[in-house]
Structures
1.
Amino acid sequence: MPNDNYNSSPLEWVEAYLAENTLQAHCIKGLLATQGIDAKLHGEALMGAVGEIPIDACYIKLMVKVEDKEVTETVLKHYEQALKNNPLDWFCHQCGENNATTFDLCWHCGHDPLHTTL
Ligand SMILES: [Zn+2]
């Protein structure tokens, strides 16, 4: 069924989120990865030299494919809601679970966030 005539560009990337820093950008990227969504970070290259530029000096654009936009928005809504309820909570890079700030390891999969290589 060739239906890509009107579907101009299924691989087009759209901006899904504006992250405040590298950490947040990677956190969301990891979250999306647990949902099978491939995200790209724009602006990160500017911060290549860690330590030279303040971590909050620029924003990082999170890009996703158009086809993933809807799921991405759901994931982000969940993320922002949890963030609002518990600002110090953290998300597991491995399984995407939301962890209370008092947990050192992910309660769900036992992942240690401090040993994550960004
Ligand atoms: Zn986990």
2.
Amino acid sequence: MGNRLVIAGGGPAGMMAGLLFARAGVETLVIEKHGDFLRDFRGDTVHPSTIELFDELGLAEALLLREHDVVTDIFASVGGRSYRVADLTHLPVRHKFMMMMPQWHFLDFVRDAAARWPAFSLRMDSEVVDLVLDGGRIGGVVLKDGERIAADLVIGADGRGSVLRDAAGLARRDLGAPIDIFWFRVPKPRTRHNDTMGRFTPGTVIAMIDRGDYWQCAFVFAKGGADRIRAGGLDDFRKRVALAVPEIAASLDAIRSWDDVKLLSVSLDRLTRWHRPGFLAIGDAAHAMSPVGGVGINLAIQDAVAAANILAGPLARGEAVDRLLAQVQARRLFPVRVVQGMQRVVHARVLGPTLSANAQMKAPFALRMLDRFPILQRIPARIVGLGVRREHIRSPAAIRK
Ligand SMILES: Cc1cc2nc3c(=O)[nH]c(=O)nc-3n(C[C@H](O)[C@H](O)[C@H](O)COP(=O)(O)OP(=O)(O)OC[C@H]3O[C@@H](n4cnc5c(N)ncnc54)[C@H](O)[C@@H]3O)c2cc1C
């Protein structure tokens, strides 16, 4: 008899892992604390490398049929001038673009794909609160209502506030994220193109995700500054936004109270060890990512693919996998280090100086170079679009009865 896998968390990492392990024939239960995937605190990016993975699974056409926007270039606007930062059209993959798709639609798609495998099950509205310790190894999870579910392996994919990594006693290295975010919506007319972009003006950074008839805005500010901004009053806040993005000034009445402005705390950290016998952390639970660059979803999905490549076959055959868990960390640590290193550089060299600037700023040197030599735009395109150490589907597919 095969082994039983429990995955805590139905975000990109958990759902993708759920699909791949169930596809390999491993009895897989994904447990998600919310009743739906309808949360808007993540980005909307489906990266070219993710589309490629779905291509390898024979699912890309179906994914592309779901409503989405296509983005081939990424822009940043500094001091009122727009710069093209990344050109995805030269990527060495079949689909040379990023899909912009609200993440709940993407996760619905992954759930539907996973549900076709009989080994897959999903429990929504169920919160994992602890791990079961069984003779020195993790032997299952405990739910909020006290129910215990036994497992041969538990994967913690419960995001950047992971309770499971703490319950597993895994040490965390805080890399410091000097920013937090106010997250709010502003209505807009629909446009033919997806106009997602970052705005950098003295003292203010705003990322704007184009979701058709509204902007999902991320107002970036120095960590810990939320109360000070709130104390300044909503009018002042609207004025700051309007100064940075004058074209949405007339729509800012849509922010009626501070209830419409959610505080998102940003973290950047990683576990020194992602596993212990019976337990593995992946995605943000193993390495919380900053929103900078919009790459955390890609890393989370690539972690799930690597975990399945290494563990799904042996688990499906009923073999013990504890000794293999370190291989997942060894495979994924390098890309995580590289990307987190870049995020730290952007925090320190771009966001910090912009947020503390009070006079007209010059675009950073790197941005001016990218603008002057468009061929260089292929480098950020590769990092954002494909990531570092791209994974491919190598996990087996069970025969469907
Ligand atoms: C404001 C913001 C914007 C971002 N924008 C982008 C972007 O545009 N592109 C990009 O690539 N990345 C972006 N990121 C980073 C990205 O959101 C994360 O790196 C990515 O979501 C990690 O995926 P995950 O599956 O590991 O974790 P999560 O997406 O956090 O998913 C974890 C899941 O586990 C569930 N869960 C949590 N605790 C429990 C529990 N105890 N029991 C059961 N379920 C539980 C949660 O409800 C959630 O569904 C952004 C981050 C922030 C903060």
3.
Amino acid sequence: MYRLSGTSALRHLDRLGWNPVDHPDRRSGKMGEMSEIDGMGTERATCVLAPNPSAMTLDGTNTWIIGEPGADEVVVIDPGPKDGKHLSRVADIVTGQGRRVGLVLLTHGHPDHSAGAKKFAELAGPAVPVRAMDPRHRLGDEGLVEGDVVTTGGLELRVMETPGHSNDSLTFWIPADGAVLTGDTVLGYGTTVVEGKLGDYLSSLDRLRKFSEEAGAATILPGHGPKLDDPIAALDHYINHRRERLAQVEAAVKAGARTAREVVEVVYADVDKSLWPAAEWSVQSQLDYLNERGAL
Ligand SMILES: [Zn+2]
């Protein structure tokens, strides 16, 4: 019989996509405030934290202003939700730096990243395009695909397709800063929800790990939560977490569980039952993955 270690339900919430106890701001009760996240970044990237904290968005959505030092044109990635105050604040920060927005990019189409994008582009100036993989989220004709190199104000960004969290998830590589901007594929703490295929997500993580090692990546800039200054360790943690969960599901099936619900009853036994439907959904994608590979 498979048993979970530990008894605290909170400690197991990360199985469902988040873990509030991992983060010092949450332990000290500062959750949702303008913490160290707002204003963090690298030489070229600055985070503007959107005021939409929740279980799924952690402290809020990270909007990124990215520009070459001294350049008068910047890129804004993930303007965030349709929150007029936040969108104006991002635009004001860019203007305050004596710069203008040349381009808006989206890591993926989830509304907490994309809903404010078109409004922001209009606010930022005439004919500022929004580029995204999914045509529904674009403003203008240009999309984004694997291998695209985006150049704005002398800044170079490289586009990688990293499906899993969603089918349209992209990662942007900022070579000059050694920064990997991951959207929701890797978060600053906790783990992400896999809406697409688990196999795609695992391949994306493996690819990002290999890439980070080869390219000498110094920082992960996530879609939510604080930046991570050890990309390899963060990706190993993510990969191991997924493998452990798969092993738990596999063990539950071998012990007799026949449906996603039965697996949940074993693997999530000490998690609050109100979270079981979400857990069932996650387990189903793991069962699909194991079945496709003939592991069950
Ligand atoms: Zn998302």
4.
Amino acid sequence: MKPKNCLIFGGSGQIGRHLIRKLTRNNIKVTVVTRSIHQKSYIIKTQGNAGYIDIVESNIYDEKKIRKLFSNADICVNLVGILFEQKKGNTFYNIHTLFPSILAKLAREYKLKNFIHLSALGINEAVDSEYAKSKLEGEKNIINNFPLATILRPSVVYSVDDNFTTNFMTLLNRLPFFPLYYSGRTKFTPIHCSDLSDFIYYVISNNINSKIVECVGPEVITLKNILERLLVLIDKKKFLIPMPLPFAFMSAKIFQLMPNPLLTEDQLRLLKYDNIVSKKYKSNSEIGMPSKRFFNEEVKKYSYMWREGGQFSTEKYLSKNDSDKNNN
Ligand SMILES: NC(=O)c1ccc[n+]([C@@H]2O[C@H](COP(=O)([O-])OP(=O)(O)OC[C@H]3O[C@@H](n4cnc5c(N)ncnc54)[C@H](OP(=O)(O)O)[C@@H]3O)[C@@H](O)[C@H]2O)c1
């Protein structure tokens, strides 16, 4: 059978890397668009066998170049997303609303079999978050422009390549205590990146169209419990201290002056809302592909790097001799 061609935007990120591995192993050829071939091609091209990956450097708004790619594609997957706004047009509106709506128009014009777009869970509820509003507006435009589109709304996605568990483990190593926003009560349904990419492959291979699907893992876990589990996994004891909201917003105001902020005011507003299935839409389980991977078991596979002696630990490994000497 002739392999399908899948055009991927944002393929160098966490989800993209897992997805490229899944698709190419299953006889799907991928064309990955990146803004910087010099910085990203080594990450992209090592994810699949030669002959299955094409890498194209392009500005995501270069319509002439992108049209050419659509003319050879069967499916398009959009994984481009940002967590905070930056200069040079990198706004929530441009990235989450305008860009996906252009892709959806092209998907219709070039008669693609599907356009799979990664949105986010909980965006109907988070009415005061600019991130959520831009994702929701993007979804509406996509459905208008290409009604066959499949929109996936994942909860937080984790793996060794994430910016979530790995950042938390680094901070838990370095900080003397850890601040809890909203007392750590916000609920999440973390989904492992391999479960999510298995689900995207399932959508492609079963021709699942015209749906919004909430993609969640098998457990509902509060933020506080996620941090407690990570502390056990890296074998550290730290105080988790509820932070009063005015302080939290003040610190976010300062953080967001940095080029790569740890926390922004918009993220803090988003954190107020539980990130769990709304039951208004079908979930991955209801579509026939429940998540199989559990948080502790998966994070255990890479958390050793943050334990004593690990490459990201602040504590050096001491041999028995060294520690005996220190104790005398
Ligand atoms: N990770 C999660 O927990 C999570 C949860 C819910 C929803 N999502 C959504 O899922 C999608 C993929 O997530 P991810 O974690 O894989 O994302 P990611 O690792 O942050 O990266 C996505 C890719 O998007 C491209 N990109 C980023 N900023 C861009 C910009 N300003 N202009 C053009 N391209 C840009 C980058 O590709 P190049 O540098 O190669 O151009 C980047 O590798 C996003 O839409 C995200 O909102 C993720």
